Amino acid sequence: MLISFKSFRNCPRFDEDYFLYCEDFDLCLRDRKLGHQIGMTPRVGVTHHPSSIIGKNPRIKLRHSIYSYPLSWDKHAAGSVLFCRLLRIGFVGGFTLPFRPQMASAKLGGVFRYVRYFVLRYQDSNPPSFHDRK
Questions:
Q1: Which among 93, 95, 113, 120 could bridge 107 via Cys, Cβ 3.0 to 4.6 Å?
Q2: Residue 116 falls within a domain, yes or no?
Q3: Pick from 125, 122, 17: nearest CA to 73
Q4: Segment 14-44, tens digit of pLDDT
């Protein structure tokens, strides 16, 4: 991600609600809403080396990514999109629980984690930061 030094002071910062996954997507969308240009080029390549901790535990990786996707839909899409996607993830997680229990429980854990965030946000005008949630 490249940000013009000239406009850096006007750029949004990373949202603390995200822990892993989708934080760059969220930042770009909020930056674009401020009128800054977002671009992509095939001429530049970046090699991303995944975290050794997350790479060794795919269940944690899946749980974090499943939490971050609905968080992004909540912040940037219509409520119906969020509802349908959560319903789909929950259905797939529930359906695959007997066959792939670790994957299914990670998916369901990510959904429940997002739902908890959603409920806490509406119960309190100042929702807890990510680091206050387990």
A1: 93
A2: yes
A3: 17
A4: 888 888 788 888 888 888 888 888 777 888 8
Domain, as residue range, for 117: 57-134
The total number of structural domains that make up the chain: 1
State the Cα torsion 44-14-23-121 to the nearest 10°. -170
Nearest-angstrom CA–CA distance, 131 and 122: 18
Distance (Å, whole) CA 118 – CA 95: 24
Specify the residue for token string 């989708």: 22
Q: What is the Cα–Cα distance from 26 to 90, expressed in whole angstroms?
A: 23
Distance (Å, rounded) from C-alpha 81 to C-alpha 98? 27
Tell whether the model's pLDDT for residue 110 goes beyond 70.
yes
Token pair 């409520």 in the structure block, residue: 79
Residues 69, 64: Cα–Cα separation, whole Å: 9
The answer to the question of residue 25 being in a domain is no
Q: Helix or strand or coil: residue 77?
A: coil
Task: Count other C-beta atoms under 10 Å from residue 112's C-beta.
Answer: 16
Residue type, 19: F
